[in-house]
Design goal:
It comes from Antricoccus suffuscus. Its cofactor is [4Fe-4S] cluster. This is 4-hydroxy-3-methylbut-2-enyl diphosphate reductase. It is an enzyme of class 1 (oxidoreductase). The chain contains 19 helices and 20 strands. The strands form four sheets. The protein has a five-stranded mixed beta barrel with strand order 3-7-6-4-8, surrounded by four helices. Strands 18-17-19-9-20 form a five-stranded parallel sheet, sandwiched between helices. Helix 13 (321-327) links the parallel strand 14 and strand 15 (334-337). 38% of the residues lie in helices and 21% in strands.
Length: 504
């Protein structure tokens, strides 16, 4: 936490309202429009702005986007002013903090000028993507260097299309002023989270070869066949990947009955059972199978063991698509074992003919514990010819163990339905470090960061590397960041594409 956090507000009314939500002495009145700009350059306010360690600008603004209503909060991703553009990198975390307090929040550019923006000028700025306009922010943040944390927050009074200086304006100003005190806790949490940090990158992290292959399959199908391309289940378990493919024309469905007869459908990287293949054949669907080759290996092992009259104990998570697809290969000869308790109680027809297989995305430690119990009960237990936990899962778990030993906090980038990402969180937690799963920077809670100076960062095998970059950019908005990578191995695995999308 910094000892010198200053929040600047244009008018005395705005400063008083903000002061009701912040400690004494934090909020300073700047004046409005050109008067504020002159005070910033020529007065005691200038010295205060230069000496402050953390700067926020907050107050009322005029809405430019029709979606932004009176009383809504705009957190600036950048401030556009007469002298250029200033970015606000920590905006996603601050916006999320306000949302958690029940405020309606928009994240995007704020325009700032020294005069009241009206009429056609407002429409032009709206067309360029600005959410609201004020008269002070640019003059204040242009004096802020990249290393000093800064934020701009505005509560909208007048909305897009409304005529200014009308009787209704008074009511809208009153409504906006009532929101300003509610910004205080979020702004304080943001200030408490500021400071210099070291970021430790776990390597390897992010996409594995199977995920790259699956995403490439959908992209190639869209390029060669055109939209729509239907995909059964999520192609990989990541919200951002799915949304990006949807924007290009992919249509994700839960079951094949949502796919028109004869259409093209891609099976996800997690694999499907023979029953799904059979249903696709009866519907004359054009199928491209994006099952990860390492998952296909486990499918083959199930068939081999059960066809030799073995009972297969499949160590996995109930309901996970990989578990459902794998056990569907030989449903009458496969039993699910989720944990050591299951391992201690599962019953098999012939203890001399028992094998185990493993969901590819599980944690190494959790599997070892289950296998130990099974071996005690079934001394003739047979293992797969090679480790079922995929190389990428193993590598990422070993890498996160390495960074956890040096970190005060670990952030794992990945979606909540990603098994391998959840296992990374658990791996870090077993090392005794607080760890959290985040889809992106907006999922980071500012109170996690208060007082924390070393953060470990990794990403699940289904999470794009760009999301890691966005998280680090957001952390830079809280203060200087030094990045160090901790690599446990290098990955050079490549899986060929299926013939249906292979370029000639």
């Amino acid at each position: 936490m910094t000892d010198q956090f200053v929040c600047f507000a244009p008018s005395r009314l705005e400063a008083a309202a903000l002061g009701r939500g912040l400690a004494d002495g934090i909020v300073r009145h700047t004046g409005m429009g050109r008067a504020a700009a002159r005070r910033v350059d020529n007065s005691v306010l200038s010295d205060l702005l230069d000496s402050a360690e953390v700067v926020a600008v907050a107050g009322i603004a005029g809405g430019l986007n029709p979606l932004v209503k009176t009383g809504d909060v705009v957190v600036a991703t950048e401030v556009r002013g007469p002298d250029g553009v200033v970015g606000c990198p920590s905006a996603p975390m601050l916006a999320a903090e306000f949302r958690r307090s029940g405020l309606t929040v928009h994240l995007g550019p704020v325009d700032s000028d020294h005069h009241v923006v009206t009429g056609r000028e407002r429409a032009i700025r709206a067309d360029l993507g600005a959410l609201c306009v004020d008269m002070e922010s640019a003059a204040l943040v242009r004096r802020t260097d990249e290393q000093r944390p800064h934020a701009v927050v505005r509560v909208v009074a007048d909305v897009a299309g409304a005529r200014l200086l009308q009787p209704a304006t008074v009511g809208r100003l009153r409504a906006a002023l009532q929101v300003l005190p509610r910004l205080g806790p979020g702004l304080q949490a943001w200030a408490d989270a500021t400071g210099a940090r070291q970021v430790l990158y776990a390597a390897p992290r992010s996409f594995c070869a199977g995920v790259i292959r699956a995403i490439d399959i959908v992209n190639r199908a869209l390029e060669t066949r055109g939209a729509p391309v239907y995909v059964r289940k999520q192609i990989v378990h990541n919200r951002h990947v799915v949304q990006e493919l949807e924007s290009r024309g992919a249509v994700f469905v839960d079951e094949l009955d949502a796919v028109p007869n004869g259409a093209l459908v891609v099976f996800s990287a997690h694999g499907v059972s023979p029953a799904v293949h059979a249903e696709a054949a009866t519907r004359d669907l054009q199928v491209i199978d994006a099952t990860c080759p390492l998952v296909s290996k486990v499918h083959s092992e199930v068939r081999r063991f059960v066809d030799r009259q073995h009972t297969v104990l499949f160590i996995g998570h109930a309901g996970h698509e990989e578990t459902v697809g794998t056990m569907g290969e030989r449903p009458n000869g496969t039993l699910l074992v989720e944990n050591p308790t299951d391992a201690a109680t599962v019953e098999v027809p012939d203890p001399a003919r028992v094998s185990y297989l493993v969901q590819t995305t599980l944690a190494m430690d959790e599997v070892a514990e289950v296998v130990d119990v099974l071996r005690q009960r079934f001394p003739l237990l047979q293992a797969p010819a090679s480790d079922d936990i995929c190389y990428a899962t193993t590598n990422r778990q070993q890498a996160v163990q390495t960074v956890a030993r040096e970190s005060e906090l670990v952030l794992v980038v990945g979606s909540t339905n990603s098994s391998n990402s959840n296992r990374l969180v658990e791996t870090a937690e077993r090392a005794g470090v607080p760890a959290y799963l985040i889809d992106d920077a907006e999922d980071i809670r500012l109170d996690w960061l208060a007082g924390v100076r070393t953060v470990g960062i990794t990403a699940g095998a289904s999470a794009p590397a760009a999301l890691v970059d966005e998280v680090v950019a957001a952390l830079r908005g809280l203060g200087p960041v030094e990045i160090t990578e901790r690599a446990v191995t290098s990955e050079h695995v490549f899986f060929a594409l299926p013939k249906e999308v292979r370029k000639s």
